[in-house]
Amino acid sequence: MSTDAWLTLTVVIATIGVLATERFPPALVMMASVVILLVADVVDEEGAFSGFSNEAPFIVAALYVVAGAAEATGALERVTQWIFGRDRSDGSVGAERRDLARIVGPTTLGSGFIANTPLVALMAPRVVAWSRR
């Protein structure tokens, strides 16, 4: 492998490691990785920043804002309470499978009518809150 390939592999592994520790914000880690590859001349400016010309990241960011607003207003509370119930299962035999079915079933059904990205943005905070109960 070339030097550029080794450097890229090293940066990718280091990025994953730093992201796994959660010591730094993910945006900072990713930007630092891009800057390292840019300074090392592995990628050019156009390649390094071409992702910012794509509208998809901005759409996803906007969906998280909408999901945050839905969470803050409690707009999804009744729906998720109806779907998930108040608490997780009691830990009896097969409880994990029932809990999984309570999540996967409605999410799969919703995926047939709503794009996956906004569905995840809307459901992820609710599932996390439900799983902590």
In short:
The chain has helices spanning 3-21, 26-39, 45-49, 56-73, 77-84, 95-111, 116-132. It has 133 residues and is an all-alpha fold. The longest helix is centred in the first third of the chain and has 19 residues, at 3-21.
Contiguous helical run count: 7
Rough outline? elongated
- Return the domain count: 2
Uncertain residue ranges: none
Largest sheet: none
**Average pLDDT number:** 82
**Helicity, as a percent range:** over 70%
- Total beta strands: 0
Structural class assignment: mainly alpha
How would you describe this structure to a colleague?
- By secondary structure, the protein is mainly α.
- The protein has 2 domains: 51 residues, no CATH class; 77 residues, no CATH class.
- Helix content is 74%, strand content 0%.
- It is built from 7 helices and no strands.
- Helix 6 runs antiparallel to helix 7.
- The longest helix is centred in the N-terminal third of the chain and has 19 residues.
- The mean pLDDT is 82.
